[in-house]
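Hey, quick one: can you model this chain's 3D structure?
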Amino acid sequence: MPFREAAAQCVCQGAPNLSDLFKSDIILLSAGTAKVNATRAILKAGFITGLVIDADSARQLDVILQR
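Sure thing. Here's the predicted structure for all 67 residues.
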């Protein structure tokens, strides 16, 4: 099927239901120390099952979480 036809058949599902997020494995990818506070907030929400993070951000996040 040509891309244009396939794209025309796609239906936007919208945002996932929050309760479905807690049933799924969700891996957060965070890079850059500017995102550390957002990463912390997402982790505290409790629906992240894995984290991929750069070393500088990991060190900064560790300091924040130990306060």
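One thing worth noting: Residues 16 and 67 are 33 Å apart (CA to CA).
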